[in-house]
Design brief:
CATH architecture of the largest domain: 3-Layer(aba) Sandwich
Radius of gyration: 20 Å
Shape: globular
CATH superfamily of the largest domain: DD-peptidase/beta-lactamase superfamily
Structural class: alpha+beta
CATH class of the largest domain: Alpha Beta
CATH topology of the largest domain: Beta-lactamase
Number of helices: 11
Strand order of the largest sheet: 3-2-1-15-14-13-12-11
Number of strands: 16
Strand content: 15-25%
Distance between the termini: 14 Å
């Protein structure tokens, strides 16, 4: 590939991950500038046990790298005035009226009424207080009543039975907020999330291998997913599922997407180009992309936004967003996934990077920081 950038250190880092102390069976990466590919590298195995090399066209579970896509789809409906950010959530899903919250008082947990209702914008920036617990009696009841199908809106209604982990607007609380947004997209658009996404994003961008959920044909193409065990320091094969896809009718806005490297890179490039596709299709307005990538957290809310890979970042709508500093003026935004996916976008440079691997319990801080640092080291100096 002819490129004005020397990405040798980035490629070497990708290769080093195969023999890192937490070894990644295989990984692949694409970087773009404008809409053109400037870097691509594939290494390792699609199936470690069978010693089957990666080819680059495999499908992956994106896990939480789904979140920026779901949020961007909801923001398209925001542009159409389907809702306002200050609307109470209960206006659309009544079960979220009169919520309760868990609080520690004198060393004992108590369940108390919330001081304020959840507002829509608090779902976008993960300050609604909804945690990541799906193993609840209410969800089990939906699963049993629907024969395991778990329709999205019905299941999200069941989430409301669980008391919140914190008061709405108090802290950043990583959880099911974007799954709730997935249900809201169905309510606002009148279409299932999977169908709405296909209509306004996947088909216009030619993302023909991307979906919420997956078919039997797609499952055969999903690369083997592994998990690292820190107690035995071994890599073990999983059953190639996502436990947050609660049933075949459940479109998980927070973790439900399947995609390929080239497909997911198309989304990243559109966002890095302020919502506009190479074919002229306008997915989002530039000001909407800027809203998505603007830090929203107050000092108090940011106290819980403290993962190692978040150093130097705030949180916008569904994405980490780099905070300006004298030491680093590359203002990227994006997110990652539990199996190691990395989504990085930069509107100032009109650049994007997508990295995919399939290892749960991986050292995300090492991988993300290493990929980001070497990517920007390369683009800052041209050949």
């Amino acid at each position: 590939m002819d490129s004005k950038y020397d990405f040798s250190t980035l490629r070497d880092f990708q290769e080093s991950l195969l023999t890192f102390k937490v070894p990644i069976p295989g990984n692949q990466c694409i970087a773009t500038e404008g809409y053109g590919e400037i870097y691509s590298h594939v290494c390792g195995y699609a199936d470690l046990e069978k010693q089957q090399p990666l080819k680059g066209d495999e499908l992956y579970f994106l896990w939480s790298a789904t979140k920026p896509v779901t949020v961007s789809l909801a923001l398209r409906l925001f542009e159409e005035n389907r809702f306002r950010m200050n609307d109470p959530l209960y206006e659309y899903i009544p079960e979220y009226r009169n919520m309760y919250v868990r609080k520690m008082i004198d060393g004992r947990e108590e369940i108390l009424p919330v001081s304020s209702d959840i507002l829509i914008w608090q779902l976008f920036n993960m300050t609604a207080g909804i945690d990541y617990e799906v193993n609840t009696p209410a969800v089990h009841e939906v699963r049993e009543r629907t024969g395991g199908r778990c329709p999205t809106v019905e299941t999200v209604r069941a989430f409301a039975k669980r008391p919140l982990a914190s008061e709405p607007g108090a802290y950043w609380c990583y959880g099911l907020c974007h799954d709730v947004i997935g249900a809201l997209i169905e309510i606002w658009s009148g279409k299932k999330l999977r169908d709405y996404a296909k209509e306004v994003l996947f088909e216009p961008l030619g993302m023909n291998e991307t979906s919420y959920g997956y078919s039997a044909e797609q499952k055969d193409r999903i690369t083997a997913q592994f998990s690292y065990r820190y107690d035995t320091e071994t890599v073990t094969r999983t059953n190639n599922t996502v436990n947050l896809i609660l049933g075949p009718d459940y479109d998980s806005g927070g973790a439900g997407m399947v995609s390929s490297l080239k497909d997911f890179s198309k989304f990243a490039a559109v966002m890095a180009n302020h919502g506009s596709a190479e074919n002229g299709y306008r997915f989002l307005m530039p000001e909407t992309v800027d809203m998505l990538r603007t830090n929203t957290l107050t000092k108090q809310e940011a106290e819980s936004f403290c993962w190692e890979q978040h150093k130097g970042y705030g949180y916008g709508y569904g994405v980490r967003t780099r905070l300006p500093s004298p030491e680093d003026d590359d203002l990227d935004f994006g997110w990652g996934g539990a199996a190691g996916a990395i989504l990085l976008m930069d509107c100032d440079r009109k650049m994007s990077l997508v990295y995919l691997q399939h290892l749960l319990n991986n050292p995300e801080d090492h991988t993300f920081t290493g990929m980001r640092d070497r990517f920007y080291e390369s683009v800052r100096k041209q050949k």
